[in-house]
Structures are given as structure tokens and as C-alpha cells.
Amino acid sequence: MCAKPLEHPDVLVDVPLMRPLASPTRPSRRRARRSGQVAPVVAAAPAEVAPTPEERARRAGGPEDRALYTCGCGTAFDAAVLMDVSCPACGAAQSW
Which of 38, 66, 78, 88 falls between 20 and 30 A from 46, CA-CA? Predict the structure, then answer.
């Protein structure tokens, strides 16, 4: 047995019939061709080329030559990337 009735003719009594959409404000291309009008041609904008990783690095100011070091004494400091960096608080050498 079905839970819903298969036919119920008065379901859409108060709903108006569907109407076609209003005509557009400008004629379609097909109508324009028929009437002899030519649709304006819009030039496409040139596509931007994605920058290479090298170009992005140059725009960003080049590679970063600084690093954040953390010493055993608990001090965190920003210093240049070198082979021998020492902690400004205790003077201990930091390994990279």
C-alpha cells in the first residue's frame, strides 16, 4: 500500500501556470544576425603569465639570510645564517 495518493488533482489549484520569461533587454545574437545587426566583438584581455620562482624571489627581495635560533639557555634570537653563530645571552655556539 502506498503512503501517498497517486493522483491528487486539486494539489496545484492555487498555483498560477508557468509563464515564459520576459524578453531580454537586448536582442539575442541569433535575432541580431537575422535583422542584419552585428554584435560588437570584445577583445579578450591578454592572459597573464605566472611568474617563475626566480622572479617571485626577486620581487620579495631575494632569499632570506636570517634564521631564528633557540639556545639551550632558553633564549630565542634572530641572527644571520652563518657557520658560527653564538647566543647573545650566554655566548654558546649554535649549530645549524
Answer: 38
